[in-house]
Each structure stands twice: as C-alpha cells, then as structure tokens.
Amino acid sequence: MISPLLSRSLLLTLEPLSDEDVRGVLRRALTEERGLNGAVTLPEDAEAHLLRIAGGDARRALTALEAGAGAALAKGEDTLTLETLEESVDRAAVAYDRDGDQHYDVASALIKSIRGSDVDAALHYLARMIVAGEDPRFIARRLMISASEDIGLADSGALPTAVAAAQAVAMVGFPEAALILSHATIALALAPKSNAATTAIGAALADVREGRAGPVPAHLRDGHYKGAAKLGHAQGYIYPHDVPGAVAAQQYLPDELASRRYYEPTRYGGEARYADILEWVRGRLAGEADQGS
C-alpha cells in the first residue's frame, strides 16, 4: 500500500487464538442456548482433537464441533466421542502430545531419520508433526540444528537451506509451510553426512572446560597499544598475505595444545575437498615443504 493510502487506513493485525481461547469458545458453544444448549458433551480427547484441528481459528473449531455434534445426535448419542468426531470431520486424531513424550519422541525420530538418510521415514514423522499441529518454527529449528550436527561441511548448502526454511515458515505459516518444511527435510535427508564439525567443537570445548587453555602466544597478542612492543606482543608475527599461498609457518595454538587437532574431516561429499585443503594447510603451518595448492 502506498503511504498516503496507508495513513488514511485502519490496520488491524489478526493473530491466531491460543488453545485456551479456542477451548473457551468451544465450551460456551456446548452449553449456551445459542449453541448446542447442552445437547452433547465433549470428552477431553475429542476436545483436544478439536483444538488441533482449529489451529488457532475459532471458526474452524466451531464448524468441526457442529459437524461432530450433528453426527453424534444422528446416532442417538449425547456424547461426541473422538471416533464420531474423526468420522464427521474426516481427520484422524494423531497420538501426539505437544507438551509430553510424543512431542519429543516424534521430533527425535524425525532427526534420526534424516541422520540415517531415510527420506521416507523423515517425511512420515514430519507429516505427523504437521497434522498434530506442531509449531512449524519448532520443526524448522530442529532442521537447522540437524544441518550442522549431522551434515556439516559434507554439504555446505544444507545449513542455508534449513535457515531459509525457518525464515520462510515464519513468514508463511501453515498450511503452505508444510511445502517448505518438506523441501528442507528432503534436502537434508539426502545430503551426504558428516558429524566432523560436531565432534570438533565438542573436543575444543572439552579442552577449555578442563583447563587446557594456556597463554595466547606472544606473537598473536595485540600490539596496537603503547608499551606492547616492550612486552614482546605481536613481535615476530608473520602476516599471511605476505607469503605465497597466504599460509605462514607459525604457531597459533597455545604451547600446551600446539599439536592438538580438533577438526578431522571425512571424505564424504564436499568435505573431501576440505580434507585435501586441511592436509596442505597443516603442512604449511608446520613449516613443511610446499605441497602444492
């Protein structure tokens, strides 16, 4: 909208209702005279299914309640059971408690299926989460973690794909967000796998937490302040861009960790290239003869 029109308009932002808001609407509809006037009761499991169907939309919840109540009364029943509700709205109830074990079990199964490269299983668990009304932002966060934890540099495009998916679902929302999450899930499941980045930072963190830190080598310390030279700071530092290949033979780790190796790349996917580069770089840092570029 152009600014002049926008300044003369009243803008209303409509946000999804919370489950508690929708629950209140349903319970009033069950008892009030303008609603069902106590003609049927709604058990807890059927109510939970209505909340999942609603997805924060009270109109959708009321439409499903009306359809289910009509089906129950047609059967001569005064209780709207979960079975009758499923039949009337043509939507199966998924065993999934967003605040309980099912939430974590299905999320875990999704990530482990991606890690195991079983794209069909990954899509199955993704579908269960979507149908159960899981927050798409939660799913997207798990995919971003998986992209670094289980794929890493074997496919450097995995993390940007997952991040793009997270940004997209935040703007789009369901039902279209299902397409975006499917896109990212398939890409991650079929990507080459490496946990080298995960184990690398794990080993580095373990050393630091166990006190293996040591002083920063003098030639790497800040030499821009007055008196730094007298302390030997920045003295002897070799500027990498001044040497062929831009990798200078000098020590970067503290003395007690000088021989430590954290990152050990695999030969899977794109990480094979990093393995070749790393072998050459480590040789140059150690002052070995030039092994080619």
Automatic annotation (TrEMBL):
GO molecular function: ATP binding; DNA binding; enzyme activator activity; single-stranded DNA helicase activity
Gene3D superfamilies: 1.10.8.60, 1.20.272.10, DNA polymerase III clamp loader subunits, C-terminal domain
Domain MgsA AAA+ ATPase C-terminal: 116-281
Keywords, comma-separated and alphabetical: ATP-binding, Nucleotide-binding
InterPro entries: AAA_assoc_2, AAA_ATPase_RarA/MGS1/WRNIP1, DNA_pol3_clamp-load_cplx_C, MgsA_C, P-loop_NTPase
A Pfam family it matches: MgsA_C
Keyword Nucleotide-binding: yes
One BP annotation, GO: DNA synthesis involved in DNA repair
SUPFAM superfamilies given in the database record: P-loop containing nucleoside triphosphate hydrolases, post-AAA+ oligomerization domain-like
Residues in AAA C-terminal domain copies: 39-115
CDD domains recorded: HLD_clamp_RarA
Entry similarity comment: Belongs to the AAA ATPase family. RarA/MGS1/WRNIP1 subfamily.
Protein name, per record: Replication-associated recombination protein A
Protein source organism: Actinacidiphila guanduensis
